[in-house]
Amino acid sequence: xxxxxxxxxxxxxxxxxxxxxxxxxxxxxxxxxxxxxxxxxxxxxxxxxxxxxxxxxxxxxxxxxxxxxxxxxxxxxxxxxxxxxxxxxxxxxxxxxxxxxxxxxxxxxxxxxxxxxxxxxxxxxxxxxxxxxx
Length: 134
Description:
There is one protein chain. The chain has 134 residues and is mainly α. It has one domain (4-103). It has helices at residues 4-11, 27-39, 45-54, 57-60, 72-81, 84-100, and strands at 107-112, 125-130. The longest helix has 17 residues, at 84-100. It is globular, with a radius of gyration of 18 Å.
């Protein structure tokens, strides 16, 4: 996947931090690592920091990270202050951009069959995948 489109789109989001504060980390770096952490089942700001440190080599390939991986307090401050409507619009535009740039987008959904488990095996799982008409 070309990571430039998501990075550019996230960087276009209005920065909620004051222009006179300490801006050691780029907004798109913070948002990209935070988003990847959540996709990988991260649950809080400490998980975002841990995700960045655990996989630091990968984001360094396309993010600037001028002052390294942001700490959990930086993730918390940014996500507390960011405009949720603007961020939602940014995230909703990513699949459209990927499709326009020749990328392929596949929706995936999963279900667990209730009552399908017993002492011999766990419950059955079903996964569906389809290509949206974007």
